[in-house]
Amino acid sequence: QVQLVESGGGLVQSGGSLRLSCVASGFTFSSYVMSWYRQAPGKERDLVARITSDGGSTNYADSMKGRFTISRDNAKNTVYLQMNSLKPEDTAVYYCNAVNNFLRKAYWGQGTQVTVSS
Questions:
Q1: In whole angstroms, what is the distance from residue 8 CA to residue 80 CA?
Q2: Distances in Å between the alpha carbon of 21 and those of 42, 49, 70, 103, 118?
Q3: How far apart are CA 79 and CA 113, in angstroms?
Q4: Do 83 and 71 touch, CB atoms closer than 8 A?
Q5: What CA–CA distance (Å, rounded) separates 76 from 54?
Q6: How far apart are CA 35 and CA 95, in angstroms?
Q7: Per-block mean pLDDT, blocks of 10 residues, the chain (118 long)
Q8: Which SS3 state, helix, strand or coil, does residue 61 take?
Q9: How many CB atoms lie within 10 A of CB 78?
C-alpha cells in the first residue's frame, strides 16, 4: 500500500521557521522525483519545490527561492521542506508528491496545514 505521510505543519509567527517531513512507503522511493506543493483556500495547488530522485538537483518556485530548502534522505524514505522567513502568504495546505514518469506513477500525501500569523 502506497503512503505519503506529511508532518511538521502548524501555526507559526511571521518570520518563523518550520520543517515539513514526508515519509514514503509502498514504493521504491529512491526512483521517484519528489515535490512539495501547496494550496491556499480558493486557489490552485502550486509547486513549491522539487528534488530529483538522487537528490542531485532541486528547483523552486520564485517566491520560495532563498527561503525554502528541499532535501531528501533515500535511506529513510523521507523528503523534507525547510521553510524559513515565513510570511502570512505562505499559509496553505502543503502536499507531498512523488512522480516516476517512466513508470507513469504519481502519488500524493494527505497534506499538512501551515498557518503563518502576522
A1: 10
A2: 25, 13, 10, 24, 24
A3: 17
A4: no
A5: 13
A6: 8
A7: 97 98 98 98 96 97 94 98 97 98 96 97
A8: coil
A9: 17
